[in-house]
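Why this split exists: single-chain examples teach little about how molecules sit against one another. For that reason, every record in the complexes split bundles all components of an assembly together and asks for one structure covering all of them. Below is a record exactly as it appears in the raw files.
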Amino acid sequence: MHLFLDLIRLRIEADGIEKICRRAAEIRGSRGGAMDNQDGSNDIENIEGTWREMERNASGFYENENDAGSVRQPLLRKRTMNTTSQIAIVGANVCPIESLDYEIVENDLFKQDWRSRKKIQIFQYVLLKWALALLIGLATGVVGFFNNLAVENIAGFKLLLTSNLMLEHRYFTAFLAYGGINLILAAAAAALCAYIAPAAAGSGIPEVKAYLNGVDAYSILAPSTLFVKIFGSIGGVSAGFVLGKEGPMVHTGACIANLLGQGGSRKYHLTWTWLRYFKSDRDRRDLITCGSAAGVAAAFRAPVGGVLFALEEAASWWRSALLWRTFFTTAIVAVVLRGLIEYCRSGKCGLFGKGGLIMFDISSNVSTYSTPDLIAVIVLGIIGGVFGALFNYLLDRILRTYSFINEKGAPYKILLTITISILTSCCSYGLPWLAKCTPCPKDLEEECPTVGRSGNFKNFHCPPGYYNDLASLFLNTNDDAIRNLFSGGTGNEFHMSTLFLFFAAIYGLGLVTYGVAVPSGLFIPVILAGATYGRITGTLLGPISDLDAGLFALLGAASFLGGTMRMTVSVCVILLELTNDLLMLSLVMLVLLISKTVADCFNKGVYDQIVMMKGLPYMEAHAEPYMRHLVAGDVVSGPLITFSGVEKVGNIVQALRLTGHNGFPVIDEPPFSDAPELFGLVLRSHLLVLLKGKRFTRERVKTGVKEILQRFGAFDFAKAGSGKGLKFEDLNILEEEMDMFVDLHPITNTSPYTVVETMSLAKAAVLFRELGLRHLCVVPKTPGRPPIVGILTRHDFTPEHILGLFPHIHPHK
Amino acid sequence: MHLFLDLIRLRIEADGIEKICRRAAEIRGSRGGAMDNQDGSNDIENIEGTWREMERNASGFYENENDAGSVRQPLLRKRTMNTTSQIAIVGANVCPIESLDYEIVENDLFKQDWRSRKKIQIFQYVLLKWALALLIGLATGVVGFFNNLAVENIAGFKLLLTSNLMLEHRYFTAFLAYGGINLILAAAAAALCAYIAPAAAGSGIPEVKAYLNGVDAYSILAPSTLFVKIFGSIGGVSAGFVLGKEGPMVHTGACIANLLGQGGSRKYHLTWTWLRYFKSDRDRRDLITCGSAAGVAAAFRAPVGGVLFALEEAASWWRSALLWRTFFTTAIVAVVLRGLIEYCRSGKCGLFGKGGLIMFDISSNVSTYSTPDLIAVIVLGIIGGVFGALFNYLLDRILRTYSFINEKGAPYKILLTITISILTSCCSYGLPWLAKCTPCPKDLEEECPTVGRSGNFKNFHCPPGYYNDLASLFLNTNDDAIRNLFSGGTGNEFHMSTLFLFFAAIYGLGLVTYGVAVPSGLFIPVILAGATYGRITGTLLGPISDLDAGLFALLGAASFLGGTMRMTVSVCVILLELTNDLLMLSLVMLVLLISKTVADCFNKGVYDQIVMMKGLPYMEAHAEPYMRHLVAGDVVSGPLITFSGVEKVGNIVQALRLTGHNGFPVIDEPPFSDAPELFGLVLRSHLLVLLKGKRFTRERVKTGVKEILQRFGAFDFAKAGSGKGLKFEDLNILEEEMDMFVDLHPITNTSPYTVVETMSLAKAAVLFRELGLRHLCVVPKTPGRPPIVGILTRHDFTPEHILGLFPHIHPHK
């Protein structure tokens, strides 16, 4: 029943990437099932001689899926519950999604190789792991610093220019300069993003999260994405958008880790052969976990927070050894950043001064708080949770709207970005005119008004001795604005109306900015809005609480973070490391607990939401309740292609050409065994390498491992980096070779994980998820049947697939 | 071949616990295999009519194990590589170790129950989880505070008395009073420990770690253990031993969680029926993880550190939801502690003052450090790692020596404790006499000498205006001594000779104290010794480094912690929360990384070492290399007992009586199926409940789920708390019922996890460990054989078992 899809896929494979995306968008109606083209075993093309028709559970649902004759009909309509599935709404391309494979392949070849491996090689391997962690830490630290340096200088220059023009009362010129620079930067960032690497748009955290769950969407971690992420993020942040560099830093860290882990990029002629040892998805997963932690560490200067972020939000699998390596990476980042900041302290880095790398020294020294304080904090947490959930809901709506615009092509993406840029410029330059000029407080150590540097007292259009409090928030970098909001002992410096105006503007701008084609993090908008909300609440609750307005701002930020991202421990530690104030830890914990609990009543966390919206088949750690009522055999769809232990070359070639399956069961038959039995599972990539090597025989005989080892090293079979493996087109099999035989035994994984067909689907899902599998073989329960019923892949566990097969099932029961 | 063992077991079951322990010690030669009595399926008693002799892989190793006729011979000699296996060296009893079962049982009964479960019940269940987390937090916080309060008052009284006597120059009386109080407290703690709950001796962290890995040793978490742990710990710490209350607090937290989770203790008539919903090992595991985190949080006042400790050191399985709940628990602990300390600030808590609950406010404000500083820190880390590894090595030796004494019985345990107590008293009272009296520094805010309170300047035997620096360390509680060492800006207050003397004494006393029959944590001795070592190194490296002596003490403590316990992130955060100094974070990280790496070259972490020494069958997350060369079928030993789908009552009774197996495969045969096929796995506990209910039939017919549900609720089959389930002796089957039949289908888990016999053992081990199984069914590869080959249990994956079966295998290859 997937014939229709396959035909489309084969057709579109001839075209370029851009065309694939457009074509896929056209056929959205039948997209739900496309996922397993790379993956499953659910096709029914008649490959000559290789069919082993399997018996099936008699079920009405299969009936009309089997009549593959009617090609034109959208057969998969029943499966497409989620029409946005497979489409990356936020400016990424619609491209094939591949599943990663964390299973240890144990075939004869690898076993032989393992035996011959010397101790020194294992030592080298371990050493290399640490060296890579070091490199990732260094590179991420340097990139993080470079990012800050560039932003501080570009944005600093822009703000200085504007403020100088305003001092000369050339207000309109100032606006033109300010808005113009913003627009140019925004357009440049959007162009980079739209034309070079659409995958670089957005935060990147959902993609990294999906990758670490085992989903490899096209070019998520490619070098081009890395490039655009770095420069696009600089452009976006400098352009004064309400967005952060934190999410992009996580993605950047992950890209760096991927690049280093696969030994550079062949496409760009940057390869290091000595780094190519990491030829398994499992090793790369570990590296990318380290990379994402390093990204957070670099963005917030929070090494422990980085580790916890990787653990709590990013990673799906975790083990103690990884904790240790991640910690090492983030420690390196911290050291690198510290060194570079020391270097810059002498003034060699242009406008990069104290402002670079947010670090808010609150030191409010609250040592006690009373019951009314606690009540105030609880109220703050509850309302913050509601606002956070609302943010997620609205963001979802806006992203869905934007997707229509973004899908129309690159120029539309850029146009959208420019529109938002103009809107942002108007807001941040226009709104401060509504604020009143306030006389500077008398007893003040700080200079007032602050000219040419960050601080609470921007004078804007005010006469000397007066300041404009709204300008202090708007006409600054986001980091400085947050610092101003967090500053303690400044209870009356911001007017209530100012705070309300700023809150509304930031909340709205944050929502409309995220979906544009620019690398954009969500941390900063959420913290900004949250801090403003906190200060408002603090002022309103002033009569009953003695806590400082700066502390309230911090708690407000925590409540918004808890309400949108639903992270707890990591946000707590990140805030701790940002503000360097241990004493407020318990209050922050309380706020986070409350706001997360409240927000969880409404919807999912923002990253989970985006993962789902992008159609990435994320697997949760727990099985869904309805899976308890099904068994593994229920969701295995279609008969499958199997090979004999010694198979005809022609059959293999045909199977590889006509299907996109990634794994094929190998069945031993007489004379190699007494009765047909499952020998194991052979991977597509291994078959390609074997065929390329052309060790064929005229007769149906076993050649054995040694024969193969003469031609190949085990290294040849190790998994290549994304987009670097052999392709079917690389094969060059002669006509006469098609009738020869090839022995699959040495390269077959003899220990694939199996479940019996009557195994509860919930338990099969747990097995699949916990072990990080790509294929799970389903074997028959009763004897006397062919030795394999089918293969379960990630696709088969998705709610869309299961609920498509069994529409009467109640998804929450 | 286990007949011999089983006979012994049956014999000793008649005797009391004490006797079991002694008997088990006598037959140590054949102990290696005893583990699976509760667990495996490896016995060969001839149970009439129920034998289904399985075919086996032809292998020389099985040959002599099969001749079960020669009962007298110690057949298992080959399996007893580790003679200390199964024996808890540190003063616990030698008792049966049971495996926990985290598999979701999916039988017809539960499915029926699940369907009928209403939404409100699921909501109640979730609410209950949170309520329990809250209760655990509250209880652990209160207990932690009580512990501190008692210690501060008892030890404070003792020290005050001694110091007053010394002021009157009655030095010998002072020693008698000091040593006498110490001795009485020590003897009381040891007596509690030796007679009431031997399992309470030692740190408790290794036991909790093993429990969370799935090993349930007898009475590890019993109410009696909790009682002794609390009061024994108070006695031990007050008695001036060089030990801490941190490890015991972790164990206490775990015990509290267990007690609450299983709904109280039936033995002590403390039961809460509404808490009995947590009838699975999985739920209890989560609660106990929360409990251990709460323990650390209470001991160090470090909520985030507690979560990380549970994650890094204690737990073997982790998921995001647990992070969240653990965090909630530790937050509650923090709030409770804060509230109670507030309450005590008004002076209502006797001698409990600022000293209670260690919290070292260093605030050294190092903002910069230079290259020489870094070199000094690296040197510190390397040597610290070596000292840490040496500590582990020596501790191992000493514990093995002590085990000979402790095994002789309770009086010997008490005697050993008293000896160490006298030694400690002599050291701490005697050694300060060797120190010179130092004149008080002139420009000092602090009172000097300090009389009747903690501080750097104890006067001891010195004239007014002088102080004895060694007495400031020895004649204080351990917490105060650490505070003195950590204090900043006090570079010259401790003499070099004093520090050397103190270091040698503490390092030695810490080693000899851990093994005595008193609840004793390792954190404090290690931190004490490390801090002293750090101050020494700081003073020695003073010429090249500008860092403060207090900071060096902190780094030294970190290096020792890294060297012995091999924790990284959690130690880092705990130290951070203890000292409230974020700026030294990167230095602490560096030191931890170095010392752990250095120490890992020598041996394992101290807790892993103790787990191994106690013979707890801990399963590592990774498979051992040699397992790659074996398949699952290789380690399955002996034929197994299976039941028919509808089985004769007599057969079941006999199987339950003669074996200790916990799981029995159920095989459907004609007429219930076409050919013999594996229907599932039935648990011993479920069989006992079913037999107790007496729903028997005269004919071999299926009774069905509904019939069973009339008699039982699914709740009846849920797992009871430890020691609370039905026992075989509770059955009362009449002679005439023995020939009747009972339908096992409704209570059989129809989805047990299975592996094919040719599955690589390494991959089977990963499956077993990742899913937290207790039984793993091994099915035959070739058709036409009986449908199950055997069952793998935790025991079958232990190195002792495997290397016993295949002595020629190199364990590291």
